[in-house]
Design goal:
alpha/beta; seven-stranded parallel sheet
């Protein structure tokens, strides 16, 4: 049975590839983008199977209207992909209030507004699958990734809670955690103005990032199709090899530290008198 998708951030990157994968197998997609002209070639190729919707996910009322329009047009929603987002990168001391607020407005609040808007429809139909695009950087942070990592860590928390809240309604939740891919993500990201004094750590960080191998983005569309077709999809899944290499090491180090300092933490709790 074909599925009805609602995908945010469809103009490029992962979002574009998700939309193309769904359309290529006969599914129908409500594809949102700030500029729907970027979707015109897909409309030509797929006709009524795609509903292009202009949307800025930071506008809550516009999100509600877009979700309603998509549901009215197609009659149901099966897969909702919270893909819209971008990166702000810079050392913590360098970040401006405007940069931080804008990062959370899109990556966190935009994701929340879409999720809240679709839930009444999914609960009423007793089914659905919500996909959250997180990142390796939502689980492991590095110099210059602080605010982006914070935004994706917030998405991780939302998804964890939501999965437990909606399981009884037949709604599934999956968090996709990609490592670096050869997409347009870096070019659309925002970078802070450097503060003097961090030259050494900045040079080491840039060297480390430059040496990272980019995964092939052609894998992400077919991978997501397998996830949404699974009878029991994962709550979390890595995309690309780097996340699977880095995250287990990070968590092993955290477990080791917690164990080493466990007695101190427990001893800090006052005993009842």
């Amino acid at each position: 049975m074909s599925k009805i998708w609602f995908v945010t951030g469809s103009s490029r990157g992962f979002g574009r590839r998700f939309v193309e994968a769904a359309l290529s197998r006969g599914d129908k997609v409500a594809a949102t983008a700030r500029d729907v002209a970027s979707l015109s070639d897909l409309v030509v190729a797929h006709g009524d199977a795609i509903l292009p919707l202009a949307l800025d996910v930071t506008d809550k009322s516009a999100v509600v209207a877009a979700v309603k329009q998509a549901h009215t047009h197609f009659g149901r929603l099966d897969v909702v992909v919270n893909n819209a987002g971008y990166g702000v990168f810079g050392f913590v001391e360098e970040l401006t209030e405007e940069q931080v607020r804008a990062q959370f407005d899109t990556n966190v609040y935009g994701t929340l507004w879409v999720t809240q808007a679709v839930l009444p429809y999914l609960r009423a139909q007793g089914s659905g699958h919500i996909i959250f695009l997180s990142s390796l950087l939502g689980l492991a942070s590095f110099p210059s990734t602080g605010v982006y990592s914070a935004s994706k860590a917030a998405v991780e928390g939302l998804a964890d809670s939501l999965a437990q809240e909606v399981a009884a309604f037949g709604i599934k939740v999956t968090v996709v955690e990609p490592g670096p891919f050869g997409t347009e993500f870096a070019g659309s990201s925002i970078y802070s103005t450097p503060v003097a004094g961090y030259e050494q750590v900045r040079a080491a960080t840039n060297e480390s990032f430059a040496s990272m191998q980019m995964a092939d983005p052609s894998i992400v569309g077919p991978a997501l199709l397998k996830i949404v077709d699974a009878q029991t999809p994962p709550l979390r899944i890595f995309f690309g090899p780097l996340a699977a290499q880095v995250v287990p090491h990070v968590y092993a180090e955290r477990l080791k530290t917690w164990e080493t300092w466990a007695a101190v933490g427990v001893g800090a709790v006052a005993s009842p008198t």
